[in-house]
Automatic annotation (TrEMBL):
Entry's family note: Belongs to the MYBBP1A family.
Protein's name according to its UniProt entry: DNA polymerase V family
Record field: compositional bias (Acidic residues): 590-600, 928-949
Organism: Forsythia ovata
Entry-linked InterPro entries: ARM-type_fold (IPR016024), DNA_pol_V/MYBBP1A (IPR007015)
Amino acid sequence: MGSKKRVSDSIEEAEIVEEKELSSGNEDGSAEPSKKKLKKEKKRKETETLENEDQNGVNELSTPSITHKPSVNSMERKKKRKSLDKERHLFPPGKTGLELEKNKSESITRSGGVLPEFHIGVFKDLAAADASVREAAAEALVTELVEVQNVYDMLEDKQLVEGALKLEAEKDDGLNSCAPSLRYAVRRLIRGVSSSRECARQGFALGLTILVGTVSSIKVESLLKLIVNLLEVSSSMKGQEARDCLLGRLFAYGALARSGRLTNEWISDRNTPYVKEFTSCLISLAAKKRYLQEPAVSVILEMVEKLPIEALLNHVLEAPGVQEWFEGATEVGNPDALLLALKIQEKIGADAKAFSKLLPSPYNQSSLFSADHLSAISNCLKESTFCLPRVHSVWPVLVKNLLPDSVVQDVDFASVPSTSKKHKRGRKGSSLEDIEKNLKCFFEVVIEGSLLTSSHDRKNMAFDVILLLLPKLPASCVHVVLSYKVVQCLMDVLATKDSWLYKVAQHFLKELSEWIQRDDARRVAVIVALQKNTNGKFDCITRSKTVKDMMSEFKSKSECDLFIENLMTMFLEEGHTSEEPSDQSQTTDDNSEGGSIEDMDSVGNLGSPDFLRTWVVESLASVLKHSELDPDARFHAQKKILNFLSVQGLFSSAIGTEVTSFELQDRLRWPRSTISSALCTVCIEQLQLLLADAQKGEQLQLLLSDATQKGETPHAGACGLEASDLGSYFMRFLSILCNIPSVSLSRTLNTDDDKAFKELQEMQSELSRLQAMQSQLSREGSNCDPSMDVKKIHALRYLLIQLLLQILVRPGEFSEAASELTTCCKKAYGSSDLLESSGEDEPEGDGTPELMDVLVDTMLSLLPQSSAPMRSAIEQVFKYFCKDVTDDGLLRMLRVIKKDLKPARHQDTDSEDEGDADDDLLAIEDAEESDVAETGETGESDEQTDDSEAVVGFETVNTELPEASDDDSDEGMDDDAMFRMDTYLARIFRERKNQAGGETAHSQLVLFKLRVLSLLEIYLHENPGKPQVLKVFSHLAQAFVNPHTAEGSEQLGQRIWGILQKKIFKAKDYPRGDAVQLSLLESLLEKNLKLAAKPFKRKKTASNPSKKKESASWKRYKMISSLAQSSTFWILKIIDARNFSISELQKIYDIIEAALVAYFDSKKSQIKSDFLKEIFKRRPWIGHHFFGFLLEKCGSAKSQFRQIEALDLVTEILKSLVSSNADESGQNASKKMLKSHLPKICHLIKHLVTNMPEKQSRRADVRKFCTKIFQNLTTHNLSASLLKALEPDGHAACESQLGETFLAMKQQEH
């Protein structure tokens, strides 16, 4: 926006307009625009003059008055313009106004003197947006004016020059000693700072600053008067016009302050009144508008920086209005007065009464940040929000006083107890302790007491002030800054995304995260402050990953150790007694991992005092997750965490909170408040997770060790199992603590649990000794017993450790399983003395179950209620022992998968033998069996059902049949283990009878099945080529087809589907060898072909099922059909690999022929033709066998649709004949087969061409098939035989229907 013209200075403005017009017009090389503007200006001025004369009724010829002057000046300007026009016509159009003026000046000064030229065009560049252009213009302006003034000062007759070079009317402006050009420049620069055009204020102020500071002829008194007179705000001014004048005065005063003239005036005359007048003018200006206060004070401070202390005391502080301004500051809330007082006090360094209540007397840092004084000035600080989003200048000054530069920044508070810190004193005597005290008082009174309890703007300012503090904030003071109320406010804002403060809080967290990037102590302090003040719930409530991301940055050993030490200290401190969070903070979220609680009921709700300690415990276990430590450093950190979790979760002290162990050379510490049972459980669970993680790392080391030994690379010498085995270290640590008299287990165990606990300890020690011995033998290259695999022993050891901890977590539930597991270990690895001492060395007999069966049963009994680390240990043991699993053990695992809460239809209570069970492996009902379904048939029912033909009310056929009784599968099972597993299943069934517990019972059974499926997946991965894979396949397929599986759990069905696809169908290996029974393959093939042919049926009772159920039923039908097809391909691959004779394959052919007969003759068969094509493509020997059968069906199938489908199948077989012609023997075999079936081919062609289908597409299929036949016969030189076999009517029909294709074959033969 351009500035408006002011009425009071209309004459000067007219002159400026005139000069601009002249300059711009001449520079363009054309005088026409200037003439037009001059005419308009002339007309306007004359009109204004006439109006003034009419209104005042003044006779200008007889009565001189003030109103007469404008007309006289106007007449003078008219004459001046006429003379300029005459001169302009005498020069070429390229001459500028400045050149004309120069010529005129030279013509005038030749008679009296010479002045250098002054280019008015530089004023235009002062308003440029480019700072470099403005600076260059200002320098050029000052250079020319200084030269002009110097020449002017040396002139003797100044009146002649002034008369000839008058650029403005004479005014009493006090610039009498200045050259006319300089006077004009000063006035124009002062007027220019009020312009809002581009960067005029900055450029004109810069020019004024340099000019006033350079030319001493310009008097300060004159400048102060000109600023007031030229930029006076009249009562008629409003809006932008008044604002431009006020800002112009501010910039003009700023130019004067920066020029240094006031300082020079005071130095030359210490009684000069101009310093007081200048200060008073600025105070008066600041009082006019709120937005002028801070910049006015900034201008005063520009002067203060240049003045000596004496001038400040005697002139600035004594200026009129300053004392009153300071006195009223605390009442009205004037942060600018506080800023001025602080800056002046900083320079004078002494008390001054003029500061009134703004600063304490006597002044020092402690009194400045005392609670009383901060309360007195809090109103000033609160009112500093008017300049948001910019932070007021008073805050950086306060921060500088609060945190002096001399403070030692890098204080490692976390690694040293606070009582032992040595506070270093700075040069000003401020210690870290004093600074922390002042900071705490500042936050309590100002931040928490004034800003956070007020409006959103002031909350925003509070976060901005904290960000100002961060760069200089010592890590030891983070807990003061991130106090409870600050963190709660931050948490409340982040929990409400629709608040406009949400982005402010996000920016704050971003800056906070960047601040802690390269400082371990800062990161630890911030994490501790955030979690301690939110009870460990910061990420949960804010629905963010702030703490988690901060924790993931701990990479090095020093960082991890520092964080671990702080977490332990936080846990051992007294319970955090803080205010309850606001209602907004009571929300939870699952996004947080570093401190997230999966089962919050185990430690109480979010408001529980144990929640923070729970977060500490979980963070200890996960702190190494993202670290990049070498094995030794990781093991050292794991030991430290293990010691702490073991002490807190497993033991309690009878003599206080600290016990010293000389054997461990360490102090065992407990918190003063008693640890709850739920928190102990959390500690044990995290201890299990830590051990499970260590087990994975150690197993990887064992694998690498094996690979190294196979490569015959010498292994480094062992330094004991405890040096790298966390499990062995834990058992030693546990044994030491159990032997300390004043330390006992935190949980009392019953007799059975106590016995099992000790047996597990002994067995684990024995296995550790055995593993160490085997490792030593392996390193020495000695022949080791294959059964003594180090990896097997290692896996068993960790299972024993997990079971030991599980006994403490859930007493009374695992003692029997622990006893069985130790017995298995003793029989497998235990020494004779151990067996004799235990008294459990029972003689082997026919009634004694296999060792692997007992181990499998024991692991199955542990699965239902075990923790995740224990399940991982079970899976590791099963992985190394699954190759020895017996058929009985495998069947018991499959038995769990087949269990169902809903009894099967037609349940037979009579026990059946295992052969009958295998005979009906997939439990497929015959299609002819009476049921509640009927086939949906339409007009074209002979065509296959498509996805688009699914009708409302259709669903899958009930594929469930009476399953074999499971009683026989329990033969040989260990009685105790079977009782435990069946007890668990029986309890699930009992809960099923209860309406309220039905859902719980079903979910428990599904969970149990999923865990057993994990074991089966491991079995299939480790034993892909065993015949038992067929048994696993049959049971899994039956469980998948069972409709109760889909109704019960989609996850269970998807898991079975995934195992079948990845571990069986797509596995690299498959069952081979003579152990694979052909009868079993025949049965499986028959069942799967029947399953693939099952139609999508509609139940009579389902009149109007929902679309969702209909879609789910159709989806399940397609999955079952896909399963049947994949199973068929897989079974045929196994059959093909055995290379059975033709006689042995006869039953296979019969099964496939039955499926083909049903496909061609029955509408109920829904086998896909693509499925049959894929069979013939993958197994060409099947297609060759049924070539003649298919040729017959091409003409005799029940429906024309099936006949066309048969043609496609024959075409697929013909393709396989072509592909087999690579060698001579293949060609002979193909020719022999075609020749043997030539009569059928001739009959089929004659039948097809004499009975062409009505549909165009089907006729095209017939022609395509005949063409393919002719090509194959021609290739094998059998076309002549075909033509000979065809009768004349056949020739005529072929020529009529096939045309050129048949004629071409005939011509080729003739």
